[in-house]
Amino acid sequence: MSITFYYAPNSSATRVHWALEELGVAYDKVKLDLRAGDQHKPEFLAINPNGKVPALVVDGTPMFESLAMIIYLGDRFGADKGLWPRVGSGEHAEALAWIVWGSVTLGGTIFRIFYNTSEWFPAESRNARQAETAGKEFEAQLGVLDQRLRGPEYLVGDGFTLVDVANAAALGWALTMIKVDMTRFPGVAAWLDRCTRRPAHQAVRAA
Ligand SMILES: N[C@@H](CCC(=O)N[C@@H](CS)C(=O)NCC(=O)O)C(=O)O
Prior knowledge:
Strand content: 5-15%
Low-confidence stretches: none
Helix content: 40-55%
Number of domains: 2
Largest sheet: 4 strands, mixed
Order of helices and strands: EHEHEEHHHHHH
Structural class: alpha+beta
Bound molecules: glutathione
């Protein structure tokens, strides 16, 4: 088996990197310099025609989209390591629901806030009303997550899984730019702390 992981630090690749480290599978890393435009080079576009990180090549098959990679890695390696429910189980259904929710529903809201507030985007394309509406949705979604995490320590099943990796990575990044009083969401705050203190997360941050 061979896995090659294409990444840039502090990007959408981080959660895949964290998943790979948690799983402990052997893989080769290729670091791209996004500022230098490595993602637009023909050899990389042959792997990900979107010109974005992360990308993964597993036994010669290229993949893009970090969510797809985490689900694939979970299905293939996660159950044996206790980091992903068995395919076909009720917990697997729950894992899919929470991991897709984190990327599509919560992630969609996070990006709406980002596009409408960040100075990465031109002032004329930012809309304060959109940002405000998305901000309220974000807090409502944090409330949903908090309900889930009042009691259970992790999102699915009895222990930490790649569902926690995917969602904690996205939310951790979001909270560096969106100011929220997290004392209102103590279940989420304690879960984020539990997840990000893990050695695999610390190793990825240093990479
Ligand atoms: N939905 C994609 C997003 C990938 C993405 O937007 N990657 C950014 C870094 S966070 C990128 O490579 N940007 C480089 C560019 O657009 O030139 C995923 O989750 O894999």
